[in-house]
Design a protein that fits this description.
heterodimer; A: mainly alpha; Four Helix Bundle (Hemerythrin (Met), subunit A); 75% helix; 0% strand; B: mainly alpha; Helix Hairpins; elongated
Chain lengths: 178, 107
């Protein structure tokens, strides 16, 4: 087995096992720690795909900021272990798992078929096979030219979200009594 | 056993991995009751989509997928902030973050 292949399989197993633990462990704090592990695994997978800058952003934004937010809220709530962690709706859990499995099978099958068509055209392009610095430079140039309106819209969105989250959390039912 | 599939890592491998991660996230949303775990499952799904974007970006040789990942990450952070604010308000009122309490959220 080559080093590349070993790295991929190792990361894939780590990501899948910790991803499965997120939904199977009944204590939310363990779920969040497993989710952080998944994020780190995906960040390493980004490195194997030559997306060094995105890997760094993934580590900082997801594994850092978002997970800290989750862990902080869980600590704030002081939750006990869920006795009924799984829903009991009209459909039983087995039906839900079966339907999710069927969908996954469809998706994987569709991918396996369509990739046969795609791989003929795909090559390791020199654009993304370059060093991390070149990719980051090009990324910045695209972001501030082709996608400038999306970028501006994201700025507005973040402002609205910050105000909205504060308004939601401090209105009736928030952590402070009025 | 065919060793080609093990040794030659290609686009298919990343796409199947992303599909499996997406499936896990969806199963989490369908099966769990805790709102925080539900939000975490959504994050799992968004991450699998990011992986798909980056994989296609590499194997098709265009950088636009990276930009999409930026956008997805920002939306995910925003979604986490709003979702957790909702969870805080639910917890304050019912002392539990169960999804069934959300039916009481009509104005």
């Amino acid at each position: 087995m080559t080093a590349d292949a070993f790295l991929f399989w190792f990361l894939a197993i780590v990501t899948l096992v910790s991803g499965l633990s997120v939904i199977l462990l009944s204590n939310p704090i363990y779920s969040s720690l497993c989710l952080a592990m998944t994020m780190v695994g995906i960040s390493a997978l980004f490195v194997t795909l030559n997306a060094y800058f995105i890997a760094g952003v993934q580590l900082i934004v997801y594994a850092g900021a978002v997970m800290v937010l989750f862990v902080m809220v869980i600590m704030l709530f002081d939750l006990k272990k869920d006795l009924q962690a799984f829903t009991k709706g009209k459909f039983s859990g087995a039906v839900k798992i079966a339907s999710v499995g069927l969908l996954a099978g469809l998706v994987v099958g569709a991918i396996a078929m369509s990739v046969g068509l795609l791989t003929e055209k795909t090559t390791d392009n020199p654009v993304t096979a370059g060093t991390g610095m070149e990719t980051t430079k090009q990324l910045g140039q695209i972001l501030f030219s082709k996608y400038i309106f999306g970028f501006e819209a994201l700025g507005v969105l973040l402002l609205v979200i910050a105000v909205g989250a504060v308004a939601l959390a401090r209105s009736k039912g928030g952590t402070h009594e009025h | 056993m065919n060793t080609d599939f093990i040794n030659n890592i290609g686009l298919t491998h990343y796409l199947v991995l992303a599909a499996l991660l997406f499936m896990m996230g969806m199963a989490g949303v369908l099966l769990r009751r805790n709102v925080i775990v539900l939000l975490m499952s959504v994050e799992l799904m968004l991450n699998s989509v990011n992986l798909t974007f980056i994989a296609f970006s590499k194997y098709l040789g265009i950088l636009d997928g990276h930009i999409m990942v930026f956008f997805v990450m920002t939306i995910a952070a925003a979604e986490a902030a709003v979702g957790l604010a909702l969870a805080v308000s639910i917890f304050k009122r019912f002392n539990e973050v169960n999804i069934r309490f959300f039916e009481h959220l009509k104005g």
